[in-house]
């Protein structure tokens, strides 16, 4: 059983208050205790956002009264921004580089936390002959699903490397479809941006001889063209059992509708931080979170409820 020192305070959150301040989210279960729906926009079922989101939904359902949290499978970052900003989800995950560079005058989005870094994977078969980014010239490559952070980062990388659409034949496939296309020989390589380890890549590496291509030399050129986010991170041999590489990484944020009430977002922030060990058991990437690093969510402002919790916690 998980020890739960914060349960009493979370349980004191008034369900009726939530229903009053969230009229667009509450669905009546009965006349006295309406249920507040929290939709969490995630990503592929075999990727990190989904595992993280499912664990977070379990925690919210268990510890906040009259909350009905559920995950939504999406194409990830760009679609999640659209869903949360448009009121079709309350929470979501996104890469930092997909966010608008300047906040809107009347923002529809705010941040709960910076959660972990996404690492850009370029995965190919060991026999493909693809050893460097330049080797993609003339190849069939998946750059990620439409609306995904992978597509944004991979497209920027190919642009910086001067590998245009006439030189790299691009497919726009999600993670699971990319893996299957590589297995079937329909593509030569695929990009995917995710926290370590990416489950679908780990499964593929256990079944086939694959290579993760080193992209470390491209971090500085990417950062020069798109300042603010990109850093180099290592993928050690222990992650996938293949040769270690360095690649491009950028932060992930948990975002929230800007109009959600401060009390609710404060409680979500509290549970996100206080249940880090449980979240990390769902996926190791969640173990990277800390209150000190979570508050750095440029260019997106923190939600006032998140600010209130961090201020009280003094990260």
From TrEMBL:
The signal peptide, as residue positions, is 1-26
Keywords for the protein's UniProt record, in alphabetical order: Signal
Annotated Pfam families:
NMT1_3
The answer to whether the entry has keyword Signal is yes
Which CDD domains does the record match to this protein?
A: PBP2_TAXI_TRAP_like_1
Tell me which InterPro entries the record gives: TRAP_TAXI
Q: What is the designated name of this protein? A: C4-dicarboxylate ABC transporter substrate-binding protein
């Amino acid at each position: 059983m998980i020890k739960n020192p914060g349960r009493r305070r979370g349980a004191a959150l008034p369900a009726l208050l939530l229903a009053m301040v969230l009229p667009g989210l509450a669905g009546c279960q009965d006349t006295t205790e309406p249920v507040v729906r929290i939709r969490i926009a995630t990503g592929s079922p075999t990727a990190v956002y989904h595992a993280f989101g499912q664990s977070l939904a379990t925690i919210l359902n268990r510890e906040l009264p009259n909350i009905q949290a559920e995950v939504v499978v999406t194409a990830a970052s760009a679609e999640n921004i659209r869903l949360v900003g448009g009121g079709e989800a309350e929470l979501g995950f996104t890469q930092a580089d997909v966010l608008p560079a300047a906040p809107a005058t009347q923002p529809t989005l705010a941040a709960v936390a910076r959660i972990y870094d996404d690492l850009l994977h370029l995965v190919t078969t060991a026999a493909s002959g693809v050893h460097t980014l330049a080797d993609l010239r003339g190849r069939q490559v998946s750059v990620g699903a439409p609306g995904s952070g992978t597509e944004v980062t991979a497209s920027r990388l190919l642009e910086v490397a001067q590998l245009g659409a006439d030189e790299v034949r691009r497919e726009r496939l999600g993670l699971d479809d990319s893996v299957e296309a590589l297995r079937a020989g329909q593509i030569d390589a695929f990009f995917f941006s995710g926290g370590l380890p990416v489950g679908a890549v780990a499964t593929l590496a256990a079944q086939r001889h694959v290579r993760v291509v080193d992209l470390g030399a491209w971090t500085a050129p990417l950062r020069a063209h798109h300042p603010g986010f990109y850093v180099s991170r290592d993928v050690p041999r222990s992650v996938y059992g293949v040769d270690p590489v360095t690649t491009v990484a950028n932060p992930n944020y948990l975002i929230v509708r800007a109009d959600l009430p401060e009390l609710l977002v404060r409680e979500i922030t509290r549970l996100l931080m206080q249940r880090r060990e449980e979240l990390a058991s769902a996926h190791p990437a969640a173990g990277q979170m800390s209150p000190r690093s979570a508050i750095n969510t440029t260019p997106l402002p923190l939600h006032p409820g998140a600010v209130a919790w961090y201020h009280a916690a003094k990260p």
